[in-house]
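Researcher: Structure prediction, please.
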Amino acid sequence: MKKIFPQRVGLQQRVLPGYRVPFFDLLAGSCESLGIFAGLPRPVEMIAGGRPQIANYREARNVHLLGGALYLCYQQGFIKWLTEWDPKALIVEANPRYLSTASAVRWMHARGRRVIGWGLGSPGLSGPLAGFRQNGRLSFLSQFDALIAYSQRGAQEYAALGFPREKIFVAHNSVSPAPVTGIERNRSFVRPTILFVGRLQARKRVDHLLRACADMQSAPRLIIVGDGPESAALQSLARDVYPAAEFAGAKHGSELKPFFAEADLFVLPGTGGLAVQEAMSYGLPVIVAKGDGTQDDLVREGNGWQIPPDDYGALVAAMKNALSDAARLRVMGNESFRIVSEEINIQRMVDVFVNALNSDGD
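Model: Predicted structure follows.
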């Protein structure tokens, strides 16, 4: 049964990436109405934007201050937007770098309305000022009436910091709907096909993937789908170390289907990667680098391998292990499909948000 929050909701984001639009529109359909307040990304971030069809979107003016580890952002017009939209509940990014959040929380609380923070978690700190910084984090988080974490690890980090566990919800980070049908893979496994889909950036470590394929005893077919600043350098490297690599360029939406259908194994050797869930929806086992904790819930022993980032040896070992047993890969692919069908998809994510909105905060 569809879960409903029968009041107007406001939602703040620093930027509105295109991959989040389906989730926001689905959430908008699960409450009275949803208003989004978000600014534009900086050109250097190369974040593709989008416009919701159901949610109401107001563009904020982001003022970027400093940079790197000292980066701060102030969103002009936040209070004016709150006054006009008049939400009964507000969801904001739980990020202390966003300077306009505190005034928005005060505005809501002055009217007896709840504010929910949404974030990745709060990893432990070390060093001489660790205790002071931890207290600062808890002080920031304590202004929220509830927290939504992207992962179980994030929820545990919030709880370890001192935020009440009963007020923490886990909405597994998802960008894809639940798949309806899987892909049958009954062909022979004479030459397995490895697939990478994503932006070609240094942090994705596609260079490691090229070298790892060259280290396989039986050369697999390697398809690299995507474009980006490292494209030319990677194609040059491929000519030297793995000339058989196929570069398909950037593909989107339905253009990706034949690539997922042809693959036997999806590999993301670096950080990030929104295509992992999509690969799983096509019944693919996956190898991914460990990151912010969202991979912990998505990639398990039954459907794939998590490797340390920047560990070339671990990547080679995982790929050799994966390709050593074709029958096992098929079973693992079926488990990938089950996970995104039943547990981690945008509808499940919406359900958790609605549960958090409907909780009384006591």
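Model: DSSP finds 13 helices and 15 strands in the chain.
Researcher: Thanks, that helps.
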